[in-house]
């Protein structure tokens, strides 16, 4: 009896440790955002150069997930988790001490190797440690941690960078990581090594990594150059390479005996549904948070810390809704809960859309943020449970890895697509409304060109700069620029609404419930 109680207690301590790993790995995807202006001053460089601090992590994070998932399945998830934690902690310390931007960029890429592993292997370990109803509850907690970490970056990053400077956002990982690693060492039993006697599928691992790298890098190129056409070699060649490499990867995987990825997973309608949900979650909900944060900082004028505090109505739901999803899924259809939650997020974007005018006040954001926070808090835990349902023990890691890859690809895709929608609507409004009476055409053309080059968020600083405020038509210009900005934000919101609505419908028709859960 005592042994049973001891094992039960260890499981929950293990869940705490794994949750800390997930929290750190995902948090570092976006915690850096609010510290970028400080880094620009610290390294005496440009904002575009500093953005590679984010891109280096994003690219590496997406690239390594599948490879680490497979290696963990083959050689033991505990060993791989601890290895990733060591990499993450050491890289975090190096990043905090980075004497130059180049060192920081390299450190972020290495840190992402650890962070990607912490994220995906944690899911697989929780699925291995818990069974039955306890698994649903544990997955609910882990899912709530995922949701919380993804949207709480502005708050935590703002607090740390404003109070202690930007290195603090990296240093904080060191003691937490050491604590989590010790807990995992003491409480988690090693999983079977399913790779005994197998050769590593180096070709599959290399092809999958390079294909994902090409896709993400191509999307980042488009994000950095929104006015370049998709057919521009700078963008198209990377995306074409991704497509070709993916085709080669599929061909190779179908031909070898022990492939890195069992492509039969994609014949499972339920798994495909989970992948679509993960992609919708990343491309609409998480990507939209980037624009919401920029709106609050760059347009509404809140500091990084104030922005984080004001987003609590969005982030707080993950703290207490996630753990109850296990109970909800045991009583109701998981398929309908996920579908309904995505449609709830679509409703939140509809309310956001109504608020996106020049009369916007913080109070107008409270209801849609709460609705979006509730949907996010429900979807993540339910998705983890649904996506891993029926997965073979030896494929749990790969299954969770694929779900996480599509979530991450969704974020990369969403930031680009939402950004393009914003830019197009903003540009169109300026082109159609900058026709002031009595102002020379060449003057207006120069100002319009400068505003378009600046982009929606930087336009506010441009219009309110000293060289613009003295213009006799400044008031009219400010009104047109404000309206152009909100035209862009409405574009962002409409695309987010469509993605979540389509995702909700696909979830309803693709996800499956055991007969006992049908409602």
From TrEMBL:
It comes from the Bacteria. PROSITE patterns: MFS, SUGAR_TRANSPORT_1. Residues 14-515 form the Major facilitator superfamily (MFS) profile domain. The keyword Membrane applies. It is found in: Cell membrane. The chain crosses the membrane at residues 12-32, 52-69, 81-104, 110-130, 137-156, 168-188, 200-220, 235-252, 272-292, 312-330, 337-357, 369-389, 401-420, 491-511. Its main location: membrane. Keywords: Cell membrane, Membrane, Transmembrane, Transmembrane helix, Transport. It is a multi-pass membrane protein. Belongs to the major facilitator superfamily. EmrB family. NCBIfam families: efflux_EmrB. This is MFS family (AraJ). It comes from Fructobacillus tropaeoli.
């Amino acid at each position: 009896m005592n042994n049973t109680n001891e094992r039960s207690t260890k499981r929950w301590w293990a869940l705490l440790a794994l949750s800390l790993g997930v929290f750190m790995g995902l948090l570092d995807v976006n915690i850096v955002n609010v510290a970028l202006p400080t880094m620009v001053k610290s390294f005496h460089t440009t904002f575009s150069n500093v953005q590679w601090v984010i891109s280096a992590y994003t690219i590496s994070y997406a690239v390594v997930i599948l490879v680490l998932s497979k290696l963990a399945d083959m050689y033991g998830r505990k060993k791989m988790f601890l290895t990733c934690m060591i990499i993450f902690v050491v890289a975090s310390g190096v990043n905090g001490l980075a004497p130059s931007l180049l060192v920081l960029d390299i450190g972020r890429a290495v840190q992402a190797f650890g962070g990607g592993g912490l994220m995906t292997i944690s899911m697989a370990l929780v699925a291995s440690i818990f069974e039955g109803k306890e698994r649903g509850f544990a997955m609910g907690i882990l899912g709530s941690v995922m949701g919380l970490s993804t949207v709480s970056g502005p708050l935590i990053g703002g607090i740390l960078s404003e109070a202690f400077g930007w290195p603090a956002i990296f240093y904080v990982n060191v003691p937490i990581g050491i604590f989590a690693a010790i807990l995992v060492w003491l409480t988690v039993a090693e999983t079977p090594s399913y790779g005994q006697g197998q050769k590593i599928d180096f070709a599959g691992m290399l092809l999958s990594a390079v294909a994902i790298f090409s896709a993400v890098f191509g999307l980042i190129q488009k994000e950095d150059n929104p006015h370049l056409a998709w057919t521009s070699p700078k963008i198209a060649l990377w995306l074409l390479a991704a497509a070709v490499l993916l085709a080669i990867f599929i061909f190779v995987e179908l031909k070898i005996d022990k492939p890195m990825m069992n492509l039969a997973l994609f014949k499972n309608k339920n798994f495909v549904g989970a992948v679509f949900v993960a992609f919708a979650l990343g491309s609409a909900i998480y990507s939209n948070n980037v624009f919401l944060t920029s709106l609050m900082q760059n347009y509404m004028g809140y500091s990084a810390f104030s922005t984080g505090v004001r987003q609590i109505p969005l982030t707080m739901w993950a703290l207490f809704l996630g753990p109850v999803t296990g109970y909800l899924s045991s009583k109701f259809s998981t398929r309908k809960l996920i579908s309904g939650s995505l449609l709830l997020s679509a409703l939140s974007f509809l309310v956001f859309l109504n608020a996106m005018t020049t009369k916007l006040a913080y109070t107008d954001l409270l209801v849609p943020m709460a609705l979006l926070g509730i949907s996010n808090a429900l979807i993540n835990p339910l998705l983890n449970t649904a996506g891993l349902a029926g997965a073979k023990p030896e494929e749990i890691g790969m299954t969770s890895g694929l779900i996480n890859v599509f979530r991450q690809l969704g974020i990369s895709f969403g930031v680009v697509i939402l950004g393009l929608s914003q830019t197009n609507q903003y540009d169109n409004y300026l082109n159609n409304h900058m026709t002031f009476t009595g102002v020379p055409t060449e003057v207006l053309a120069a100002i319009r060109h400068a505003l378009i080059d600046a982009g929606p968020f930087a336009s506010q600083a441009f219009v309110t700069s000293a060289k613009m405020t003295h213009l006799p038509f400044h008031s009219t210009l400010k009104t047109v620029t404000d309206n152009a900005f909100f035209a862009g934000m409405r574009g962002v919101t409409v695309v987010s609404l469509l993605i979540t609505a389509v995702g909700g419908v696909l979830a309803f028709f693709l996800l499956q419930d055991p007969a006992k859960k049908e409602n």
